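Notebook, p. 212. Picked up where the previous page left off. The plan for this session was modest: take the two constructs that came back from the sequencing core last week, fold each one, and keep the raw output in the notebook itself so nobody has to go hunting through shared drives later. Recording the first one now, exactly as returned: residue sequence, then the structure token string.
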Amino acid sequence: MFLKSDSDTRFIRLRSETQLMAVAGITLFVAWAIVATAIVLMDSIGAGNFRELAKRDQQTYRERLNAISDERDNRAEEALAAQERFNAALTQISMMQSELLASETRRRELETGIEVIQSTLRDTMRQRDTARKSLAQLKEDTQDENTANAAMASASAQMGLLAGVLSDTAAERDRIMADARDAIGQRDELELELQLMDERNSQIFRQLEEAVAVSVTPLDKMFRNAGMPPERILEQVRRGYNGQGGPLSPLAMSTRGEEPTAEALRANSILAKLDQLNLYRLAAQQAPFATPVNLGQVRQTSGYGYRRDPKTGGRRLHKGSDFAGSTGTDIFATADGVVTHAGWQSGYGRMVTIRHAFGIETRYAHNSKLRVTKGQRVSRGDHIADMGNTGRSTGTHLHYEVRVNGQPVNPMIYIKAARNVF
């Protein structure tokens, strides 16, 4: 290799081994550059496809969420309307039962009156027969014409009196029997109307049972999919909630030792389901089933699990889900709770921590601005922070964590469990 300058010429002699090493190094560098360029291009194409797929999934999720929300509202309106019809039916049944009992009491009184009249009529007829026998005996025994005439006159007067009493008694009997027939007819009409009312009530019960089943089943499935046993969750909510009462109070049973009717048992079963639905609603408010951001404004860039650390390049557990968006994007509380931390925390930057029921805690990290303070009570959907790039972060995004009894879990378990409910 010759190196020539204005005043001098130099040369360097390269051995064959040195030339081979130089050629090999240059070849490796060129190959590395080609492979790195291919990887960068593939990552760029894959990232673009992933963003498009994520946008389509988010659009489908929003449409499905809106449809399910409308269906839930319709079901709730149907349940309220059915409950109102059920209460009106119970009131009407109570009135019909009262009328039926009054009719039955009147019928018994009429039957008792008829028996008394018949007994009086029999006594009167016996007295008439006795009087006739006495008159015949007087005719045989007396010889005195004056005495006989007096006896005849007395007997005639008694006969007239008896005839009048018998006539009045027969008229009273006929009237009472007519009233009894009318009462029996009214009873038959009331029984028919009560039968029709029972059929309508049965239909109302069926509609209520179907509406309650349609409302409770998705909630039960949601809690099970989130790994939260519904029996334990409802029992915990019931212990901390004293709001039962009013329309959800069970119907009072008889205090006279009578067996409850089938309608009362069925109604209490529906009321118990409605009370369970109310407890599910309270529990859902206290568990992080909502999304921390408006999915139409962000994209999910990283999920829960082991991944390559963007800072160190090593493999480590990513304890939450990342949602990328523009600076200042609104961040919302995913459940009711109390703020236990609102400030700077190493690595997380500006962070909000909320304590919820059932041993659950949520964290919202890398914010640009905090909207809550420590000790503040928040509700699901409250605006708690603005998205930012503070702390150990490579870009503007929200790092969202869910911890149960201090251990991190996948936040998407709760969000996906609620997709077919809210």
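Okay, moving on. Second construct, recorded in the same format:
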Amino acid sequence: MTAALAHRLSVAPMMDWTDRHCRVFHRGLTRRALLYTEMVTTGAVLNGDRERLLGYDPAEHPVALQLGGSEPADLAQAARIGEDLGYDEINLNVGCPSDRVQSGRFGACLMREPDLVAACMAEMIAAVRVPVTVKCRIGVDDQDPDESLFRLVDACAAAGVTRFVVHARKALLQGLSPKENRDIPPLNYPLVYQLKRERPQLTIDINGGIASLDAAMAHLEAVDGVMLGRAAYHEPGLLGAVDRRVFGEAGPDVDDRSAVAAYRPYVAASLARGVGLAPLVRPMLGLFHGQPGARAWRRILTVEGVRPGAAADVIDRALEAIETARARRLEFS
């Protein structure tokens, strides 16, 4: 399935979270959702270790590459590299509020330069055949979102962009950390709904503060797609119901134990290549959320997973802790 068919639900690009291991793990929970890389700058793509930065497992498809940058020619070249590597979509970050991103003149600060963003998108679209999309905020600082969001979208649409992922809150570039910018500025879902109503020819996905599949399904009444961020990372088990609830597929949901089993061959192959266990188990920490033994599951994976030479039997011990906790719950119920 191509990225164009998968946007109905996607997992957000999240720095230090959605690495290649996380994406393979998430793919074991949902075959249909669109997955995103962490943001990679054009400088890193053009000059860095491409296997380390851009390498991925074929199982991840459909998977999109998110770029950070503001030089049209560099973005076009980076997009071509992404397409050559087989990515299903190339996305431009116009939403990250970190100081490092601002100093590089990309991310959320580009909300102030819609014509530059449009020029970047035109170059990228001309360079590749895969979809090229934008992820943005509704505005930054003292901008009026009713003006800033529509101006950016219209400029990019004129350049040929047809799909936008909108984080439904402003970014305050001075005085708030990136973490605070994910929580403090108020959400404005109705503005994103309005964008879809007034630009019906565009594909509009909504992002920001969406904590459950129930909430995602409610948003899908008004927009084309939903992007989950922290909820998908901290409670990955919710992805196990995505194919049935969001995409209408028949068959059972993927439960937490099945997700672990599906991921085990990748863990074994990665360990054999010299990857440490800690980064491999990190995406699994949120499994069994709210279930008996969840705390022991996390503790075993985090404490034992960082030890030198840690192997996959750490996962077995963590699963045993889950079973022990369940048995105790049944014994006293």
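Notes on construct two before I forget. The beta strands are 9-11, 34-36, 40-41, 63-68, 89-94, 132-137, 163-167, 203-207, 225-228.
Flagging for discussion at group meeting.
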